[in-house]
Design a protein that fits this description.
By secondary structure, the chain is of the alpha/beta class. The protein has one domain: LmbE-like (Rossmann fold, 3-Layer(aba) Sandwich). The radius of gyration is 19 Å and the shape is globular. Helices cover 34% and strands 14% of the residues. The chain contains 10 helices and 7 strands. The protein has helices spanning 22-25, 28-36, 63-67, 69-84, 117-131, 148-163, 190-202, 210-217, 243-252, 268-274, and strands spanning 12-17, 40-47, 87-93, 135-138, 181-185, 235-238, 277-285. The longest helix is centred in the N-terminal third of the chain and has 16 residues, at 69-84. α4 (69-84) packs antiparallel against α9 (243-252) and α5 (117-131) packs across α6. Bound molecules: zinc ion.
Length: 301
Amino acid sequence: MTASPSPSAPLRLLAVHAHPDDESSKGAATMAMYAAAGVDVLVATCTDGSRGDIQNPAMEGQPHPKRDMAGARRLEMDAAANVLGIRQRWLGFVDSGLPEGDPLPALPPGCFALQPLERAAAPLVRLVRDFKPHVILSYDENGGYPHPDHIMAHRVAVEAFAAAGDPARYPDAGEPWEPSKLYYDRAFSPDRFRALHSALEEAGLQSPYAERLAAWLEADAEGHTPPQPTHPTTTQVECGDFFEARDDALRSHRTQVDPEGFFFAVSPAMQRKVWPWEDYSLIESRIPAELPETDLFAGLR
Ligand SMILES: [Zn+2]
């Protein structure tokens, strides 16, 4: 059912994210770049973000997020989508929250991460069949970082990529559509952080990445080194001209992103010089692929 688009038909990109703000920290410049080039870009946000903590000291004590975190985050999401020039849809699940403590508390009843896979994936399968993306972006098996909603977002994206084209699966969720390519983002690629870290040190600036890099590279007391990413970078998308848009989108998530924080440690200009790409791993392709690539739509144009 994979259809090659005619030269005039728009290409479509669907990015599956766990919470409102994840689209701005993972692949945002890529999406803004493709949207500006005429690609139809849609973000599917699995949960409402209702269990997010306030991460920006300037927003502590603000009445709206205090009273209605999900409502505040809907407004933030709209602003971010506007900045990136993309569309966004909510899949309607409730944020599971990040369990903390020892022992870890149980997840709250009814949350996204506790849904059976078929129920969790059904709205995304319906959206894939409706939007007909050529390319789907998702997280790896660890969710990029092990938040239960990120791991579930990974599982539903893989399920939708596999099942949306099969008329026997999810028969009530619309006409089958088979996306061509599935990628995992590598937004937190160690190579990128290493390059940015060296550039900062060479410029005599303080690097906020020292601790993160050390944690990746050093063995613990028992001699175990941390798990290395299991998926290699296959695809580097040059999107440096859209780093400012990415940063503006991040700052739109005012309750979640500290404008003085980690994400803004390196200026867009320096990032353009050192690492003007966003990195991806091609996980599955239903069309012939020649790796490495520089375009998520390679083979589809
Ligand atoms: Zn998240």
